[in-house]
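Final report, Chapter 2: Outcomes

The project's central promise was a pipeline that accepts a single protein chain and returns its three-dimensional structure in a standardized token representation, suitable for archiving and comparison. That pipeline is now operational. To close this chapter, we reproduce one record exactly as it appears in the project archive, with the input sequence first and the structure output second.
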Amino acid sequence: MPHILLEPHNDINIKESKSFDFIATGRYDQKICAKVDDKEFLLTKVKKNDNELIKIDNATRLTPVSLMKKTLNNYAEESNAKLLFTNTNSIHTKMKTEETYIKNIEYFVSDFKTNKEIWVEVGFGSGVHLIHQALQNPDKLIIGLEIHYPSIEQVLKQLKIQNITNVLIVNYDARLFLEFLDSNAVGRVFVHFPVPWDKKPHRRVMSVGFIQECMRVLKVTGTLELRTDSPNYFEYSSSLLEHFEKYPHEILKNKDLDVTSKYEARWKRQEKDIWDVTISSIEESSPVTFDIDFSFPDGYDIENVKKNLPKDAVIGDEFLINFEDWYEIKSQSKSNGLLVKITFGSFNRPVTKYLLIENNKARYFQGEPIRTKINLMAHQKILEILK
């Protein structure tokens, strides 16, 4: 991550700065708001030995990296402090070919469109099955979900080498991802050899809620296909079928597929049993629409907000909220302001954002959180706490 090390120096002159909008001071560090090309993000200023380290705030970092490097260089110039170290000299960066394939979740929230039938693979691992399906079905768009980044890198290399153009990769939790897909848009959902999580069953992909979302996004005759070598996972998943009695299902044992990964081949040599559970959709689902409002009312008193912020995490049935820290603001427009760092949302994939309060008004810094039901529930609780 780009950063610079400077000798100790006074705050930059916000009123005369063309690159920076405010400085927010906390207990241990400062946050400096940078504005470049209509984008805003934060730098973090923290003591390092007897000097001062300026780096990118992880929760607000942007692409391309060159933009952030340029901003750090601007800060070094405006600080008039002696520069002790920098890794920002290389401003120009090349766009990676892999970015054609890998997409962040914001892409699916705002920009994703396709005329192709979608197939989804959850936890693609080595990618053997994913790539096989992509090559055999060029008319389908294959979306691969994976949270293990070495597996993602391995598959990205193969996609590039084989010039496969009908795959998108997402580093995101499958239990949350389906919410961003339209109803009746998916032909098949593959869940092959998921982690059994015998000691933490709440982390399993398969659940009543996940199957319900699969039935919503699947077209008529579309299928959810689980394949597992874990007897415990098979028994658990089979028990879920009682909640979906109207949907046809099929259970097979030691079925051969057209493609086999090296791990599955090893299991077969060891004569381990493998189960397949397939559930079929039988009806069209209505489009999902729900009102999303992440706005805040006017009239916040900063001293009251600071006094009432919970010191402990707030835990709901489906979400958490943790007010991590707050910072006093000095800005171009008004000296009285507050920047609050909050982590909130689902237990397995919370988001960290900043709440900016100035002139008695509040907003999420860098825009609204991802538009999910759980984030909305957390936002409504945040409103209740701030009130």
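Archive annotation: The two ends are 38 Å apart (CA to CA).
This record, like all others produced under the grant, will remain available to the consortium after the project formally closes.
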